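Example record

One chain of 395 residues, shown exactly as stored in the release files.
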Amino acid sequence: MSLSHKYNLGITGRIVEAFLTSKLPVIFIIASILAGVAALVLTPREEEPQIVVPVIDVMISFPGASAAEVESLVTINLERKLWEIDGVEYVYSASRPGAAVVTVRFFVGEDREKSILKTHSKIMSYVDQVPPGVTGWVVRPVEIDDVPVVTLALYSSLYSDYELRRVADEILHRLQSIPDTGGAYVVGGRKRQIRVVLSPEKMASRRVSALDVEKALKAANVNLRAGTMDQLNKVIVVDAGPFLSSAEDVMDVVLGAHEGRPVYLRDIATTIDGPEEVSSYTRLSFGPAASRDPETRDSGVALRGGAYNQVTIAVAKRKGTNAVKVAEGLISKIGDLKKSVIPSDMNVIVTRNYGKTADEKVSELVKHLGIAVVSIVALLTVMLGWRESMIVALA
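Predicted structure tokens for this chain:
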């Protein structure tokens, strides 16, 4: 006679009997342990917590206005409108000549998509009150995943910041092939720019104004489908373009006609194909601790006594992905690019690696968790016995 029939057990008793007389508890224990191990291995390791705090930047363009005019005509009024949105916790702003940035921050837990929609709707309802000089605005959400997980410093004592920037742009393009990478950008260095230096005397002799030059360059720097022509049962596609790609293309732009002859840009100006004008400087110097870092010590450059031209490559990750794997993939890719893209006399060091720090913090947490489990099991073994302590350990 079974235990349930002998004592006429209820539902609870039958459940207890099933677990006492079958192998289900062992299966459940093994499954729970495997699930815990899988969770520890597969859960993404991240530096920043995945909390929802909607933050939105509204960037306004107001050309020709001073900082005080931007503040009084645009910024203050926009702040008042944004304060009317439900769920807003803080509103910040910064005004400067010709532009302003207003940042609206919602309470923790507010829905991100709804917050963006409410912000955009409120701004659109303010259109009829916008001063005539405002040429436009951009609504840009800000997320915690926009923070770069890896930053790389590309530096050299032989190359200019313009040359470093050209190499960094190519590196950035290659790094975005790594899975789960998010936003990426380059900080520092001068971009390539074709500058047009006008000659007032030549312009006056050919009756060409600076406005004519601007209109001609905008009209020439396009690449679009102009239309089609039907001829002899054939359709001929006509494209306008391509874009201007060199100083020679810019020099060949036709500005108009004077005395029956075409006026080219080369007739009234000279062009310079090279770096843009300097607006900022980025330098890298090493302190006393650099000699103890294997990465900088083995770079082959002097670590003291000077600053190097430098640009920074910053790469973020996608939301919910493993920062450790993304960082490892980026650093591994840099090692491959040193053989093909990065010159041998350029140096690259990792200045931020959130994947490494996230892995160290999670590993430290698991270590202390293991110490806590062992300590509790040892205490229970002394106080209650080894059977009871093993039950607690498995739980």
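Notes: The mean pLDDT is 85.
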